[in-house]
Amino acid sequence: MPVEDSISRDFSALISRRMAASFIWLDLQGRRMEGEMKQAQGSATGAPWTDRTSLARQGLWGKARRYGRWNIRLTLSHTMDYGKWLEIACKKGDQRGTDGPGPYAILLPTLSRHWIEINTGVVKIWDRPFNA
User: Domain extents for the chain?
Assistant: First the structure.
């Protein structure tokens, strides 16, 4: 077997392992953020609205998904169709436009709180020497 084939196979295996590690890390973070978003109102990290049916809170989710061989997407979302209005709504009488998250937003504030940790974890996975 030529040396080039061996190096290519080893490198491909290394990349596959790091992709798997990245997926596990991102999925873990997504599920952790999901748990935080579902916490009761009044907690430091929970959804900032008052529940009527609790469907919106129960419908919050976060997870990683693979798209093809090389793409991973971390998604935080609502399952209720009115979730988008919770994200951009303003309080009654407020003339604020939709230029950012409203007072009931939970997705972007949660991701913003965890972004540095998420990014640091992915960098640590990929920044190790290739012989590690």
Answer: 3-126
Q: 73-126: per-residue pLDDT in tens? A: 999 999 999 888 888 876 655 655 555 667 888 999 999 999 999 999 999 999
Q: What is the pTM of this model?
A: 0.82
Instruction: Write out pLDDT tens, residues 11-43.
Output: 888 899 999 999 999 999 999 999 999 886 667
- Decide: residue 125, CB within 10 A, 0-12 exposed, 13-18 middle, 19+ buried: middle
- Rounded Cα distance between 127 and 71, Å, is 18
CB atoms within 10 A of CB 10: 12
> Mapped to the 3 state alphabet, what secondary structure does the chain carry?
CCHHHHHHHHHHHHHHHHHHHHHHHHHHHHHHHHHHHCCCCCCCCCCCCCCCCCHHHHCCEEEEEEECCCEEEEEEECCCCCHHHHHHCCCCCCCCCCCCCCCCCCHHHHHHHHHHHHHHHHHHHHCCCCCC
Q: What is the phi/psi pair of residue 50, to 5°?
A: -90, 130
